Amino acid sequence: MAASLDLDQLRTFVAIAETGSFTRAGDVVFKTQSAVSMQMRRLEERIGKPIFARDGRASRLTEEGERLLGYARRMVRLADETVAAFDDTELTGSIRLGTPDDYADRFLPEVLARFSRSNPRVEVSVTCEPSNELIRQAGMGEVDLAIVTNCGAGQVEVVRREPLLWVASAQHEVADQEILPLALSKPPCMWRDEAISALTGVGRRYRVLYQSVNATAISAAVLAGLAVSIVAESALRRGMRVLGEAEGLPRLPNCEIGIIRAPRRAETPIVTALAEHIVSSLDNISVPAAAE
User: Fold this and answer.
1) How far apart are CA 87 and CA 120, in angstroms?
2) 3-state SS of the chain: helix, strand, coil percent to 5?
3) Best exposed site among 144, 160, 255, 266 by fewest CB in 10 Å?
4) How far is CA 115 from the centre of its chain?
5) Which CA distances in Å does 96 have to 99, 123, 142, 146?
6) Which CATH architecture has domain 7-85?
7) In terms of pLDDT, which residue wins out, 254 or 267?
């Protein structure tokens, strides 16, 4: 009978696929890079097919590696769920998580999926509000934990920095208009202020044609070719085109994404566990490519 697959090797394989690096995967599974490499050689020997191909300095999954990844994720998830089902010490209870809707779209699928696999008895309720409002709610104890843009208010733990980008539709020419049409969040909004300040600083004329607290509505105006907006790099969507100095638009600062905890629940096991999942996910999430 054929030997079974080694679950520890599969867990390392999944970590490599999710972090994009043997070195970073080693940090996730607490192994040295040489140990990770040895595990992958043994896994390839067991599969009988190459699962990695060299791409310059990086390693990418082969077609067989992509095929294996789906099975590996299911096996690791089932193993974790099995252990959790018999763990009398696992976390139970509920937590209130806040996030702006653009971060919800990009970050929550991975965060909640990973957290629920590890803590199936914890109920997570999600509130979508702008960062300023979530910082207020955390301070008042109305949410237990929130993913926010660092607006300089509250005790935000910054875990990710990325550039703010001007974006327009890849299918329309809108940035060459004499008066630049904008789609921005309603005030108060730090990114809105940055966009207007940057345009004013270079003397570029503009008008705000669309404004909403809903990121999907803003993106719809952009993708329809009606206006230009700004997004964090991780929020790029297919069909968006990044604009820059060639289109007469000034460079924007980086944005800081972090978490804020309600003071009374900051160190509780559930808040700590979810915060750790958020930090890990935000640290390793890949940046989507905008479609030209």
Assistant:
1) 11
2) 45, 25, 30
3) 266
4) 14
5) 10, 9, 8, 8
6) Orthogonal Bundle (1.10)
7) 254
Reduced to 3 states (helix: H, G, I; strand: E, B; else coil), residue 151 is coil
What is the pTM assigned to this prediction?
0.65
**SS3 at position 228:** strand
User: Residue 142 carries which side chain, given as an amino acid letter?
Assistant: E
Tokens 């909403």 locate to 212
pLDDT tens digits, one per residue of 221-240: 999 999 999 988 888 888 89
Question: Comparing 93-160+256-284 with 162-254, is the CATH topology the same?
Answer: yes
CB atoms within 10 A of CB 77: 15
One-letter amino acid at 28 equals V
> Under 8 Å CB-to-CB from 105, ≥6 apart: which residues?
215, 216, 235
pLDDT number for residue 17:
86
**Structure confidence at residue 209 (pLDDT):** 92
- Kindly provide the residue ranges of all beta strands, DSSP E only, lying in 138-228, ordered along the sequence: 145-149, 157-169, 180-184, 206-211
First to last CA, the chain: 51
DSSP H stretches of helix in the chain: 7-19, 22-29, 33-47, 63-85, 101-118, 131-140, 190-201, 215-223, 269-284
Q: What confidence tier does 93 reach under pLDDT thresholds 50, 70, 90? A: confident
**CA quadruple 158, 29, 76, 56: dihedral, nearest 10:** 90
Q: Which fold has domain 93-160+256-284?
A: D-Maltodextrin-Binding Protein; domain 2 (3.40.190)
Is the preceding omega at residue 188 within 30 degrees of 0, hence cis?
yes
